[in-house]
Amino acid sequence: MWPPEMLPKKKQLISDAAFAEIKILKDQLEAERAYLQDEIKLEYNHEDIIGKSEAIKNVFYKVEQIAATDTNVLVLGETGTGKELVARAIHSLSLRKDRALVKMNCAALPANLIESELFGHEKGAFTGAHSRRLGRFEVANGATLFLDEIGELPLELQAKLLHVIQNGEFERLGSSTTIKVDVRIIAATNRNLEEEVSKGHFRDDLWYRLNIFPITVPPLRDRDDDIPLLVNYYVQKIAKRLGKTIEFIPLNVMHALQHYHWPGNIRELENVLERGVINSSGPKLRLIDELKKPFRSLTSSQQTLEAVEREYILQVLAQTHWKVGGKNSAAEILGLDRSTLRARMRKLTIQKP
């Protein structure tokens, strides 16, 4: 109980505390706004992880399993497989979806800048620190922090990251004030972290904390059934951006795309398609890349090849309302004569429903 003569001091203390809290919230909002201004310059389609293969269905299932929880997630996969899309899908289905997903690429900054970027700094904390800056953890308070290429994080910073994950607190550089945060971590890597742990390059205790619920994104070479869907999606997206109209993807082009091994995965596919769209002067997609080192040799299963061809022809026929010949027909889209297409349909037992 405060004595009457101390009530003005009590009011002042309450007022000071309120103003301090308001300033913290204001700083966080300003930092989040600055972060979002950078983010909106980029284009994302995180709601569309495209595919129907069993491999990608397994990813969908795991995303739906874990999204509504606060469990940290480790997304594994080769470069270019779409790990960030998976992270964004998890966030967009989570209880934190009303706040921005905050991203940091651990491989994109020199080691001496990563700590400041993650945890922020006070004015004068180091040469060039002319003002206080909030780090990604403060910006992501109440939201999700996506740490891409986590395997590149220097060992000395792995200990600090582990402390935040375990205790939900940290200090800015140049400050002794402890800051509490509520942040969900989604980390991604193309490295084998278990091997990195055995080599002493990655902390085992941090790996255990991150590896609670791993999701492995399959390479494109294991997603044959998804390639026609991905090709059509990216061709239309790229053509729209470049102000072009691509209506036809010839069968031989699709066949080449489906039987290449794609070491760069979806990122490489998108680059190949962009060059193709740029090089196409008419409505047909024309590839300029020579896709060497095919994933399947000529001795591969003929049954599998015919199944892929049959499915693609069915897709084109459905798209053209089963118009086999003439302008804007299935034959024209596939780059075949009408008689050739009819012969392929007979061989593949394709009949109009």
Keyword list:
alpha/beta; Helicase, Ruva Protein, domain 3; two-stranded antiparallel sheet; 14 helices; 47% helix; elongated
Question: How does this structure look, described?
Answer:
- The chain has 3 domains: 25-38 and 51-216, Rossmann fold, CATH 3.40.50.300; 221-279, Helicase, Ruva Protein, domain 3; 305-348.
- 47% of the residues lie in helices and 8% in strands.
- It has helices at residues 7-39, 54-66, 83-92, 111-119, 136-139, 155-167, 193-198, 204-210, 227-242, 251-258, 265-279, 302-319, 330-334, 338-347, and strands spanning 73-76, 101-105, 144-148, 169-171, 178-180, 184-189, 214-216.
- The strands form 2 sheets. It has a 5-stranded parallel β-sheet with strand order 2-3-6-1-7.
- α9 (227-242) crosses α11 (265-279).
- The longest helix has 33 residues, at 7-39.
- The model is unreliable at 34-46 and 293-303 (pLDDT under 50).
